Amino acid sequence: MLVPESVLNGYSSCGFVMIGANQQQVHSDLAQLRARAAQVWSEGALRFVFERSRDAILLLDDGVFIDCNQAAVDMLRANGKDELLSLSPSDLSPAIQPDGTPSSIKSQQMNAVALERGSHRFEWLAKRRNGSEFPVEVLLTAIPFQERQILYVVWRDISRRKETERELSKSREAEDAFRAGQGRVLEMIAQGATLSDVLASLVTLIEAQSEGMICSVLQLSEDGKYIRHGAAPRLPEIYVQAVNGAPIGPKNGSCGTAMYRGQPVIVTDMLTDPLWEDYRELAKLSGLRACWSTPIFTGQGKVLGSFAMYYREPQAPTGSEARLTEVATHIAGIAIEHERAQNELQHTRSELAHVARVTTMGELAASIAHEVNQPLGAIVGNADICLSWLREKEVDLKQLAEALEDIAGDGHRASQIISRIRSLVKKHVPEKSPLNLSDVAREVIGLVGHEAQRKQVTIHPQLSESLPVVEADRVQLQQVLLNLCMNGIEAMHETDANQRQLTVQTVLSDGSVLAAVSDRGMGIEPANAEQLFKPFHTTKSGGLGMGLAISRSIIESFGGKLWAESNAGGGAIFSFSLPVRSQEIS
Questions:
Q1: What does pTM read for this prediction?
Q2: What CATH number does residue 335 fall under?
Q3: Neighbour-count burial for 294-327, b at 16+ CB within 10 Å, e otherwise
Q4: What SS3 state is found at 3?
């Protein structure tokens, strides 16, 4: 028998079978070989399997096809067996395989491996008679035949498997891209991007996952009554404006109803659904027909807003949208909660900063009284003089005018002092504006000047006259410098009176504006420098322990840094740097 029946039974179902002889051995009588093969293959069950197999089978010897079944003719789209048997193996493969190797060279390599190991399985690119190419899985098996090795070659068409693999690969790539997009949005939240930018990026990411879908994120107002715009990059502006500020309720469109109920609301046709009765014309003008809205919750189950999917044609969910909705509502919830937590934190910081300012102003009470009493005393004195002059028969109008000018000047001075004190004491919303740090430092030195004099401390201003401006809140910068100056004055209460020097410096350093307050007090241990900025840490008997912590948070909120270090001449130096306003950078 030409091929053992056990071999054929094991591999005929795999595909396309080719038998090749040792290239060194040449048959002298091809016709005799074909006749013998035909006789063998016609014997009983073996021929039945060969002919009835749904896989293509070909017999090959020394590069010549000697037999094939009908499945081979059909697979390779030949015009009958005679045409297929007249072909050479090179006619059934492209010149180059997908890995760039010529088919002739690669086939020799694969044959050699099969002869060495006994069998070898690999993938191959085959070619039909019409020129179309398709992938096959090849199994080569070396078997003995008439004192030589025969290669028993099996091909299986794996086009469907490859297509499935490509689809799976695309799906994995899309999933990886989707996960990466989620990561970028979460990173935006962590880096402090604005809520509007975060939600816009989230909506854009979700819309990219489904063609024809338009998305939006809406927020619920703090009092739980009204809709607030979040993000809707592709919704018509007329729709966005109409929805922003609308009330929620049991019959207020998809989003207003979803927020009111705390449950998803699916509207497949906005022009017929009763929930859209009051907004039907708006839907028509906006070209929208379907809207599915899902509430966004806090971790405690409180409604924060809603995420909506819109379509321009009536449409019902297919089920594939559930995961997108879950991702969108989860991330939107994180973003909105983070924003509200930041706002709450900012409010708390402002309250603490206000308490710290009031406390500091309490410490300056004596100095403030002195600062205010000076111009008031001058005003009273000049007023008394004017009155005495007016009682005389002849009034020197020139002298009277000068005295009145002094009164007016002192009045303005007192007003400015009170205004500065009020700005530091009253509550206010921090507001960035262009500031010259040297000007702010001069104002603070004016406030603490009498306190320093009272405690025998000499202030040495070293303020640059040509500083670029920074973006910050004036009152908050005054608070930071005031706190640093008062700390420096307090730190020198045990220093010899003639050594009590407080230096306030402003300078441009490494592209940033630097302010430094140095004293000659007890100093600090370098290892303990960071401890000073921790909340409730204080070296004062009656201190709150919040001044430096608040000062650092203020400076960092403006993109700067605040640190402490030892003073080479004894004492400590507290410095902070702020970035130069972007318009100032050339």
A1: 0.58
A2: 3.30.450.40
A3: bbbbeeeeebbbbbbbbbeeebeeeeebeebbeb
A4: coil
